[in-house]
């Protein structure tokens, strides 16, 4: 537990360090995260996200991310996938980014609280406004905990209200677009409701601290999310 707290504090420190000379924004994100098991060992990951520009002015980003998952056991799984990110601005052509990504996920329980650690490596093929394409590799570390707000009648959390806490650190490990190792940090706190063992709804606040080449960005985000598991 102490290790988890230290990792969380370290990520938060990185976030605070990235806020000097910062532009503040307010955005809205909507997301659907889905996992589908084909068999005991194989399955599908899919998420779809829509993200607004500052002050909800327009839809700035659409993200589509499918992947193939191999379940090593009940606590470990690995996924390889593809992602397409479409970025739009009024008066300009839309830009796209394609990603190949690999991830390793560890899940376990601390008492009755489920914990998730995710390590993701991305190969990013970025379309730029000047017409040139750029390549970069990025490493992401994600930690999430879902805490039920009422006592459960079964060992597994199957229904009811919960609080979700997560943090994710992004590090550019090759060809840094901003000229720095640290890319961004996302700290998220949400309230949600588990409708049944296969579906969660949640809404919360996400703080995205982005390290820019010249000016940093602090994005205050209201996010709504649907999680489905089949």
UniProtKB/TrEMBL annotation:
User: Mind telling me which Pfam families this protein's record contains?
Assistant: DUF2490
Which InterPro entries does the entry mention?
A: DUF2490
Annotated signal peptide? 1-20
**Which UniProt keywords are present, listed alphabetically?**
Signal
Decide whether keyword Signal is in the record: yes
UniProt name for this protein: DUF2490 domain-containing protein
Species of the source: Pedobacter aquae
Classification from the root reads: Bacteria, Pseudomonadati, Bacteroidota, Sphingobacteriia, Sphingobacteriales
